[in-house]
């Protein structure tokens, strides 16, 4: 059952951290997982080349203000901040629901202490929290047009061509790449693989009909060991042309799934946080 857990925290002292801080939240998550379910944590570490069945966001303000992920995030002791963890793995789902920071009142990120104010799956308490069954992801009426928000810097890697050491990174969310990668994660984790012929037809018949995107380069590392990740952020609208009922059902299912799966490269470290805009998720 896909889940999205939101953790709301308050800094105990004023300060600042990098806005692209997902790797520190990732470290916090793995330290906790090693204590709670070390075998699962070890298994995730050993699967370096495989798609991970979870995503982790960056820490960000509870307000809806836009973040400059290239800079620093000021932390005020009187303000609330949040991050989230999604899971598409049954054991991790259970452990998150039963014990993630349930009995702990504080945590530390980049040497700054925080008090834990709330841990919730409820979208009534936070719009990025939710739980759903795989079957319920497929219950909405089919739609011919979806709009997907890329809420954090997102990278799409194309498959390697002969002679290439690594795949090329796209700065535009092409329909075939977006829905191909969502389908790969759906097939890998849902236990109910998509019809390959429907998926091929979906990718061939989707076009971009509207968008508001910008590019952003996220720097990691320091000095000579630093590098930049070429990303995009914003939203993009995709439409089936011509319309088709069976393809529309797959389209809305994958668009809703993006909320849990994330999109693209490095989703366990804050990149690729995404969601369908205007398509409802169940509210509990």
Sum this structure up briefly.
The chain has 284 residues and is of the alpha+beta class. Helix content is 27%, strand content 32%.
Question: How does this structure look, described?
Answer:
This protein is α+β, with helices and mostly antiparallel strands. It has two domains: 3-130, 2-Layer Sandwich (Alpha-Beta Plaits); 134-277, Alpha-Beta Plaits (2-Layer Sandwich). Helices cover 27% and strands 32% of the residues. It contains six helices and 15 strands. Strands 1, 3, 4, 6, 7, 8 and 9 form a seven-stranded antiparallel β-sheet that branches. A hairpin with a 2-residue loop joins strand 7 (106-109) and strand 8 (112-120). Helix 4 (175-189) packs across helix 6 (245-261). It is globular, with a radius of gyration of 19 Å. The chain starts with a strand and ends in a 7-residue tail after the last strand. Residues 280-284 have low confidence and may be disordered.
Keywords:
four-stranded antiparallel β-sheet, 2 domains, disordered C terminus, Alpha-Beta Plaits, 27% helix, 284 residues, seven-stranded antiparallel β-sheet, alpha+beta, 15 strands, single chain
Identify the CATH architecture of the largest domain: 2-Layer Sandwich
* Helical segment count: 6
Low-confidence runs: 280-284
Give the end-to-end Cα distance, rounded to a whole number of Å: 15 Å
The CATH class of the largest domain, by name, is Alpha Beta
Radius of gyration: 19 Å
Number of domains: 2
